[in-house]
Write a structure and sequence with these properties.
Helix content of chain A: over 70%
CATH superfamily of chain A: MetI-like
Radius of gyration of chain A: 20 Å
Number of domains of chain B: 2
Distance between the termini of chain A: 53 Å
Helix content of chain B: 25-40%
Number of strands of chain A: 0
Oligomer: heterodimer
Order of helices and strands of chain A: HHHHHHHHH
Largest sheet of chain A: none
Order of helices and strands of chain B: EEEHEEHEHHHEHEHEEHHHEHEEHE
Structural class of chain B: alpha/beta
Number of domains of chain A: 1
CATH topology of the largest domain in chain B: Rossmann fold
Shape of chain B: elongated
CATH architecture of chain A: Orthogonal Bundle
CATH topology of chain A: MetI-like fold
Strand order of the largest sheet of chain B: 6-7-8-3-9-10
């Protein structure tokens, strides 16, 4: 039953997996670089908070919501001119990173916001009482204390990106989704489709387990004496 | 007499009206002074304005009127940067400890030093003795989740002392602890107060805390200070009804319910007069009762008695029953007055 796994097909699978991983991790990385500060700002800029700027908070919240409510496949098509501007082309793995990042950043921002809001306000008050500046409070209190939750948030973001990356396959983005569609669907090779799904499941499992383990290690709240 | 280290001058704090809630005056015309090296306890029921009061000292809240001075600096006149520097010489401990869960005991104590920009080597040299001082040298690498409530508050105290402040603010620091642990933490506060000549402002709703550590007491009610004075004087002669209520809760001057229920203001035939006698200082240890019994030739019936120590001075409250005839009562009060004891007829049963 594995005779569809010819050496050339195995090579294709490996190459597609690599492309997927490349897209996902670059998008997650850039998405985090944008989403982390954005999320921290969203979590600390309502009135009375560290960086109180309620109007900017509302405005950024609206932008984030708009980006989050656009279906990914529509986003991919809608921002093709922007993709061309950044990547020089709208087709291929490199180009696929652009819409993946655009989708990931606001998603990560919202997840980070939730993680940072979970930090006990008493800690912020204690830090203020020590004479900490708002930036010191973010660096020394909010981010370190939220780190386990942030780890889980980024894990969720990567898992979601793996799903999204399969969709960019539909518009010539390369990777596992692309392989599954072209071989499994268009060339009537359901075994390839199945193999692609199995690889995706394994990837998601690996990412989730690693994230869970890391978050548990970082969390010092459930230690036994 | 040196200037007080903390001084409130006509301080007022009004929280503006918000959707659905009218404006709230948390503090009105508060004047308060904490002398250097003293422990001043502010007691009040919840909602009396205690938390607001203590947060004004380090600028976590800003007053809507009046001025606050700490160590000669008017904190109410400082800008954000000046306030941050001033906060480094004001330590604070909290009811729920507010320790960082992902930092060990050592790292928690180091945090204020990191914030103040103290170099790493010096941080080490300063944190270790502090952990020793609070008795946690063996827990330096433990995380808060591995510590008991009392140990967490010890870390909190060490952390508050890390920047060598002259002032310590204690925000209900023992309210989340059991009685035994509370005593240990209060003893530690007393120790740091004495050893470091630290000026302490603490807020609490428990008179037991005041009794154990405070040199002076301020009673806060509805945003106003209704009574203020040395702890012992306030316990011995409480003036305001709120103060009386707080005091009677810990000095045993509240009558047992079955007695209180039968108490009448007028003497009936064969009634006993109940007299409360307050012993203070040296005479708390004298055999006053047997002397009175012999002097007046009456049977003295002890209804309730408690001898305690407040601010290091013996303090006793005894409620006695004597035959309720006017002659006996007058003679008893005269005898007590001649012994310099304050006495009060509570009623007749």
């Amino acid at each position: 039953m594995f005779d569809f796994l010819t050496p050339s097909m195995v090579d294709l699978l490996i190459a597609a997996t690599q492309a997927t991983l490349y897209m996902v991790f670059v998008a997650a990385l850039i998405g985090t670089v944008i989403g982390l500060p954005l999320g921290v700002f969203l979590a600390t800029s309502r009135s009375g908070e560290l960086f109180a700027a309620p109007w900017l908070n509302q405005a950024l919240g609206l932008v984030v919501n708009a980006a989050r409510s656009t279906p990914f496949i529509i986003l991919v098509v809608a921002i093709i001119p922007f993709t061309r501007l950044i990547a020089g082309t709208s087709i291929g793995t490199e180009a696929a990173i652009v819409p993946l990042t655009v989708a990931a950043a606001p998603f990560i921002a919202r997840l980070i916001e939730a993680a940072v809001r979970e930090v006990d306000q008493g800690l912020v008050e204690a830090a203020r009482a020590m004479g900490a500046s708002p930036l010191q409070i973010v660096r020394k209190v909010l981010l370190p204390e939220a780190l386990p939750a942030i780890t889980l948030a980024l894990t969720l973001a990567v898992v979601s990106l793996i799903g999204y990356s399969a969709m960019v396959g539909a518009v010539g983005g390369g990777g596992l989704g692309d392989l599954g569609i072209r071989f499994g669907y268009q060339r009537f090779m359901p075994e390839v489709m199945a193999a692609v799904v199995v690889v995706l499941i394994l990837l998601v499992q690996a990412v989730q387990s690693t994230g869970d383990l890391l978050a548990r290690r970082l969390d010092k709240r459930n230690r036994r004496t | 007499m040196t200037d007080p280290v903390i001084r409130f001058a006509h301080v007022e704090k009004i929280f503006p009206a918000r959707r659905g809630t009218p404006e709230v005056a948390a503090l009105r015309d508060v004047d308060l002074a904490v002398p250097e090296g003293a422990v001043l306890g502010v007691i009040g029921r919840s909602g009396a304005g205690k938390s607001t009061l203590i947060r004004l000292v380090n600028g976590l809240e800003t007053p809507t009127g009046g001025r606050i001075f700490v160590d000669g600096t008017e904190v109410t006149a400082l800008d954000e940067g000046g306030l941050r520097r001033a906060r480094r010489s004001i330590g604070m401990i909290f009811q729920h400890f507010n320790l960082l869960a992902r930092r060990t005991a050592f790292e928690n104590v180091a945090l204020p030093l990191e914030i103040a920009g103290v170099p790493g080597r010096e941080i080490r040299a300063r944190v270790e003795p502090l952990l020793d001082l609070v008795g946690l040298a063996d827990k330096r690498d433990r995380y808060p989740a591995e510590l008991s409530g009392g140990q967490k508050q010890r870390v909190g105290i060490a952390r508050a002392l890390a920047t060598r402040p002259r002032v310590l603010l204690s925000d209900e620091a023992t309210s989340a602890l059991d009685p035994e642990t509370t005593d240990q933490i209060l003893a530690l506060l007393r120790k740091v107060n004495a050893e470091l000549n630290l000026t302490v402002l603490l807020i609490t709703h428990e008179m037991g805390v005041i009794k154990a550590v405070a040199d002076r007491v301020a009673v806060l009610e509805g945003g106003r200070i209704v009574e203020e004075g040395p702890t012992f004087a306030l316990f011995a002669r409480p003036q305001h009804p709120t103060t009386r209520a707080f005091v009677s809760a810990v000095t045993g001057s509240a009558l047992p319910p079955y007695v209180a229920a039968r108490l009448k203001p007028e003497a009936g035939p064969g009634a006993q007069a109940l007299v409360r006698i307050v012993f203070t200082g040296a005479n708390a240890t004298e055999p006053v009762l047997s002397r009175i019994g012999r002097l007046l030739r009456v049977e003295v019936n002890i209804i309730q008695a408690q001898v305690d120590e407040i601010a290091g001075t013996p303090f006793g409250v005894i409620v006695v029953g004597v035959p309720g005839t006017p002659a006996t009562v007058t003679a008893l009060l005269a005898a007590l007055a001649s012994l310099h004891l304050s006495a009060e007829v509570l009623g007749y049963v």
